[in-house]
Every structure is written in structure tokens, then in C-alpha cells.
Amino acid sequence: MRASVRTIMSAAIGSLLSIALQGCALRDRPRPAAPAAIAVDPRVGAPADLLACPAAPAGFPETASATIPVDVRLAAIRLAIDRATLATQLARLIAWETGVPCP
Question: Please, which residues have CB within 8 angstroms of residue 87's CB and are 6 or more apart in sequence?
């Protein structure tokens, strides 16, 4: 009985040591370089093309008609709502940055 306990203990200790020593093996590898810091002058504004108010896209033609499956219609609604949310967010950011609201 004693021999089996020793065998189990030896196996457990050997397993734990092999796991613990694997962490030590990685110390010889070179560390990756730290990312370079980017300095931004807050007095310089954003480029003009980033401060252009978003243009509203043309909608669907009023004279056309179609039968759209429910899942496609719901996806189109989700896309339209997301685009409107992003356009509103961009317009607010432009108004905040320039002090002039988008028309």
C-alpha cells in the first residue's frame, strides 16, 4: 500500500513540476517592443474631410413596389436605424468640434 501512495505522490509532484517549470522556459524569449506613443496637439483640429456633414442617402423610389420577405425587411430596417444613429452621432461630433451644427 505504501508503494502505491509513493508512486501516486511521485507522479503528482512530477506533473506539477513539469507544469511549473514550463513558465520558466519562456523567460529567454525577447519581449515584443512597446508600441510607440503618439503625441497629438489639441490645438490642431481634425482634417476638413472628417468635419464634413454626412449627406442623407436617397431613399427607395415611391413608384416602385415589391414584396419583401419579413427577415429581409427587418434587416433593412436594422441597417437604416444603424445608419441614422451613426449619422446623428457624427453630426453631433462635428457640431461639438466646430461649434457649427450640420444642416
Answer: 54, 56
Cell numbers at 103, concatenated: 444642416
Q: Which three cell numbers stand for residue 60?
A: 427607395
Who's near 45: CB < 8 A, 6+ residues apart?
A: 51, 97, 98
pLDDT band at 24 (very low <50, low <70, confident <90, very high): low
Stated pTM of the model: 0.51
| Structural domain spans, the chain | 51-58+65-103
What are 33's three cell numbers?
A: 517592443
Give ∠ CA 20-23-29 in degrees, rounded to 5.
Answer: 160
